[in-house]
Amino acid sequence: MFTYTARPAHIVFGPGTLEQVREEVERLGRSRVLVLASPDLAEPGDRVEKALGPLAVGRFDGAAMHTPVEVTEQAVALLREAGADCVVAVGGGSTTGLAKALAVRTGVDQVILPTTYAGSEVTPVLGETVDGVKTTRSSPDILPETVIYDVELSRELPVPIAVTSGVNALAHAVEALYSPDANPVIDGMALDAIRRLARGLRGLAEDTLEARTELLQGAWLAGTCLGAVGMGLHHKLCHTLGGSFGLPHAPMHTVVLPHVMAYNAAAAPDAMRRIADALGATDAPTAVYDLVVAAGGPTSLRELGLAESDLDRAAGLATAAPYPNPAEPTRDGIARLLRRAWAGERPA
Ligand code: NAD
């Protein structure tokens, strides 16, 4: 038995689609836009503002990691002062998080132009930080109305970030395949995402438009999986490591994913066989590890700054509350997994 609910997002995909941003805001019946960007993405923010012409009535470049509420409050004040009825966000998951936080507080519509592969733009989930503590909520009001995937814009993402962000997307598709909510629609999207993301990651060495197209399309499909079905151990572990130890989001996903796959392999043989097929390999966890190594991505939590002395606490935090996962997350098992991931060993 399964249930499936399609989510009502409008997607525009292709090179140069940033130029359609004004038309997309008008399609929503909105006319006063607050443009959101981050300090790193001021230039694409300028391009979006120009393409919006007179529809742009304000600009906020202060989006920050993990959507701190103090930043959201500043942006809400600016939004109200400008009388905006829509936000257009250009950036990664951090900027998308700010757009969602504004939409859920004020009811404005959202048009998102993603520059990474995090996938937040197609989920109804918002993670926010209050006094350093991250809380997550889900609501249909949080899901952005429109997403413009401009492949040209995504080419500006530096290759090292594209590698880790691409593996972050891969993790959504992998965990969707062994989710308790798995269903044929999402399985199909997840497998197509894995094929595209693997081709895109391999193609990053030459960094062609084709590789970036595969990555962005894979990211959209994988993000849709993330928004549709519950995730397992991998996302739980990364949430813990990000929240409690401040590890960077996409690099941490990149290191942890092959190890979680190895942990789950015996308990989810069918999913692992389908993932291996999609990767053109025989063993899914080592195939993902090798893909990361070949793309020059990080392989150890040590290199991301996690102290060896934190491993035990991390294992405790990650197993403090039960959650669905193919293999039971035991404290000893997770401690072993984390140690291998910390040292950068091949998954086993
Ligand atoms: P991010 O938005 O912080 O971007 C990562 C880095 O890439 C940043 O330094 C950013 O400045 C840089 N960057 C992005 N685009 C660039 C470009 N074109 N050129 C140069 N640099 C660029 O991080 P992310 O990995 O995209 O997203 C992670 C955040 O999103 C986390 O807070 C995570 O919790 C959240 N997230 C939420 C969901 C959800 O469904 N709610 C899903 C995925 C991620």
Automatic annotation (TrEMBL):
Residues 163-342 form the Fe-containing alcohol dehydrogenase-like C-terminal domain. Its cofactor is Fe(3+). Keywords: Dioxygenase, Iron, Metal-binding, Oxidoreductase. One of its GO terms (molecular function) is catechol 1,2-dioxygenase activity. It comes from the Bacteria. One of its GO terms (biological process) is catechol-containing compound metabolic process. Transmembrane segments: none annotated. Residues 8-150 form the Alcohol dehydrogenase iron-type/glycerol dehydrogenase GldA domain. Belongs to the intradiol ring-cleavage dioxygenase family. This is Alcohol dehydrogenase, class IV. The chain holds residues 1 to 348 of 634 of the full protein.
